[in-house]
Amino acid sequence: MTDFERNILNHYNIPSAFPEEWPKELDESDDEDAIISDTLGVRRSRSRYSALERSASERKSLLPGSQKTGEGKANLVQKDEPDPLGANPSVVTSLRNRGLPVEQDTRLRNKFMLSSTTFSPALFLSQSHSDASTEDLLRGLQYLTRSIDQKSASLKVLVETNFERFVRAKATIDNVYTEMRNQGVDPSAVAAAAAAAAAAAPLSPRHSRRTSGIHFRNISSGSAAGMQNPAPVITPSKNALRKETDYGVQGIRGPLLEVSQKADEVWGPALGGKEREGNLKSIADAITKDRALYDLGSNLSEAIKQKDYSTAVQLYNSARQYVVDARALSDSVVEKGRTLNDEEVHRILVIGRMWADADNQVKSLKRDIWRRLSNVSSALPFPGFSQTEEHMEMITVLLDLGVEESPIWVYLLSRYDYLKNKISAVVERSKIEIEILRRRLAASDKPSPQTVAAFLRQASKDSSVALDTEDVIDFWDCILTYFTKLLSLSSGLLGEVVDFWDSAQAFIDGTRQRSLPTGFQGESSKHHQLSDTEVSGLRSGAVDLVTLIRDAVNSLLADPPTDDISALFSPIPGSAQTPTTPLAPTAFSPTDGRIGRLDPQNLPAAAVKKGEPWEDFAFWPPHSNSLAAVKYLEQILKLLGIAVGEIAVLRPVATNNPAVVEKIKSMISNARDRSLRAICEAWSKDAECCRYLEEWVRAPDKRDQTRLPLYFEQFETKVLLGMQQVMYFSDSSSKAGRDIIAPPPSKHLQMARTQFVSSIYKAVSGMLENAEDAGASQEDEWVLVSSLEAVADGGGPNELLTHEAINVSSRNVRMLLTMSNLKALRNEHIPTLIQLFETSFSVKLTDESKTIRDVLGQIDAKLFRSYTRPIVAHLTKVIKDGIKDPSWTPNSSRPTQVRPYVYASLMTLVMVHTEVSTTISNAGSNSPLLGEILSFLLENTSQALLDGFKERQPNTYTLASLMQATLDTEFIAQTMSQYATPKAGEIQGQIYTELDKRTTNDARQRLQQELGDMRIVLKKLREGSRNSFGCFKRPRPSATDKDRGRKLTG
């Protein structure tokens, strides 16, 4: 605000330099005697001497800056004054620093001025001393007390010194006024009237000149209300200084009016008739001669109403030409030393009146165009015109009409102000709405692991299905909408900033001015070129706008959630945060109004912090999973990368502005770092839920596995690909963007590597928990596969689907399927993921691969031991009990049967074979895990035989016992020969060695003689048990395998 505008506000005591209407309180008369009603209700007009009837205490101050309070008292306030409590030398400066518009709003300023009668102590203390302590206020009270005492002492001395002068001056003034008022009135009548008035009226503490003289008018008006004895009527002289006598001129006023009226009646028609005829004729001739001159004003008014600016400009230029011609005529007359004739005088007068009318209309048109050009958002384009074309049209009109200030500069400056205020409003509103949504989401219940797993399974689907709960997706959409509004080049604020600079650059280069007019006689050509100061200001403005957008992006991505959301409901009018340029009719809302109607007294409170990772992120929806995070953050950083590329080529930023470039690089670094942290935290949480990906449903093409390995691979693949996009800004193809976006630092790569290995470990650990889960029902329980909609919506049983059901209640079934899944992960899926990671991030996971293989091996071995331990214990007990049984010793010298424990052990192995083959075998082939399990059990069976024969008592073997032990051992070894291992063969050799130690030489020699018969017995026994133990036979090659073999040999 300029000093001139501020003086206008102070002088007229108005709130704005350009008010739409005059304040009603300033229309009220300050003179109580302007209209006086006597007791009969007669209203009398105010005379020129009415000011004499006012007392000194009731006269209106003629000084500017006064303000009238609600009680009618004048209020003369200084523009500034020191703090009455002694804290600051200037109250206005202190309030201005606090953001209050005290220089623009004089009424608000007066509330803080102690010299004002509208001074508000509560408002003064709450604003000027809001942060003062109790000690500060006590010191201020002492300072105020001393100030009051000093002023009171000075005033007391002044009154005591001049009291007699005051009394004498007051008495003299009252006496002179009374004599002038009561001229020609009997003093005794005046005294009687005064006594009657004093008796009738109550005693008033007020004392002024009205007591001695003015109230006689009311007494003489004939009103007897409230009186028992009416006062006598006073008849003043015609020269008395009273309103009834027109203050002494009543005697001559009537005759003068009568004489004037008679003169007009007698001589008026005679003197004015002929002159009027001549005037009318000359006017008619002049109008006929210069019809265009006389019609110019009305035609200009019509053209302005119809917004026909080209016609208006032509008419205005014609008017200016008339003025030029008239001025030339006047100059020529002066040069020639002659006088103007009547026709020339009349023409100059007509041109003057025409010019006054045209100039007023054009000034009004200029004000309207200036207003629309200054308020960019309020300028609606004409039909068929874009907003830019409409602005150029207004600039063209102003240049044609001629203006003192450059419309180009005003347009660019107003557009800068509009964009700056719009960015601030959008950012502040959006941040608050986002925080409200975040708080609501944080207060909601955390989704169960089963619900999270149901969404993680969606990674295997190519269609655009929901990747998280509706509230979380709504929050992500809000974040994406906000960043699109900020960074989009087609529909966002950055696009408007780029358009603004393109327009400014066109004006700076002079290309846009080629089509602009130079005005009447070239007067507007000076506005075609922007000054160096203006060019520098435009460049600084463009940088400021870019910085605002950069700060908004960085604030949401890098700063923690805001704590203050009250600004949404209580913005301070006129503060620095309140836009002065009108915004669009509909304010931008990233939620599209979905936050609903909020009660300012019942705002959503900040959630109690529980150590959740999302509590430090303003842009991360609470309880969001990693799939939704990578999907939306990938889009957001894609927008950011494209925006950074566009900002980098913006000339004010690219030219000698390293500080801004560093800020942009810092924003990119913060965005990448915070996004990666959010993804890794969500990834870690999701990895803990991967155990719930297990549906216990067989994979369609691999029946020895469930669907979990495929789900896990697809989940990890989607997260890795999204993280790669976030880390490298892969979709930002702009060369300038690639130059300003630095490669990811090593800590980010290490973060990704660590989280990748951790997610695999957590998922595999969860698989182990699934296999060993002791909470499964002991009854037959079959898994039911449900759709995502049923899980997410809590659907009933009628929404569940059954497919490839598995008996989940069996621990062995869970163990076998988990071991098969682990082998698939170790051999197929995880190597694929490692290769994807190395390709995406251009690193080698040598150490990590070894760590993953070791972890998988350990967990696989743990599962294998957990599955085989009870079987080995059972086999060992059966074998040892059978060998220790007294009936084990053969009754005949040549045993022909193996002992029952052998059949029992083999039947246990048959059951294991059946369980494994039916659980994890593909159609037409056995699983490699079957051979591993049976080979391991065969080794433990052989070890049990060895231990049993060692522990048997008596510890000596006869020939018959030696033959029985050999039959038992060989029968098991030959039946399980398909699963024989070197270790099993070694243990069998140890069995024969131990038996040989515990027999005699004679028995040993005779055993050699009986080997041929024993072979015959073994053969018969094997043929007899062929049907029982046929599952242990080596499968014959199929016809397809034979054909393949022939082709290979051929």
UniProtKB/TrEMBL annotation:
This protein's UniProt keywords: Exocytosis, Protein transport, Transport
Annotated Basic and acidic residues bias: 1039-1050
Assembly description: Component of the exocyst complex.
Family: Belongs to the SEC5 family.
Known role: Component of the exocyst complex involved in the docking of exocytic vesicles with fusion sites on the plasma membrane.
Official protein name in the record: Exocyst complex component SEC5
GO CC annotation: exocyst
GO BP field: exocytosis; Golgi to plasma membrane transport; protein transport
Domain Exocyst complex component EXOC2/Sec5 N-terminal: 82-1032
Domain of life: Eukaryota
InterPro entries registered for this protein in UniProt: EXOC2/Sec5, EXOC2/Sec5_N_dom
Region: Disordered, residue numbers: 44-90, 1028-1050
